[in-house]
Amino acid sequence: MSRRKRRGRPVAILDARHHQAITLLAEGRLSYGEIADNIGIDRRTLHRWRMRKDFDRELRKVLARNEREWRRTMQSRLRLRTAHDMTWFFDAVGTV
After folding, report:
1. Homeodomain phBC6A51-type domain: which residues (predicted)?
2. Mean pLDDT over residues 10-37, rounded?
């Protein structure tokens, strides 16, 4: 059995710019162009990063962590014990 060499570019390790992009993408407030400008890369580079499996895996981890944190906070906040809790809830939901 012969082993085949993998062709193509070697996979690079995610650096600080990648992690900064992941954080900004997970927040969901900025567009791709704004995120790229903040990091100092081209928008197309950000699109190429999104196609990488390791980048996508890290982004999914951050999104899952944010969701768990949001659920934990919501469970404690939804008890609505004080007027401050009620104000926070209605501000978060977007009513009143």
Report:
1. 9-64
2. 91
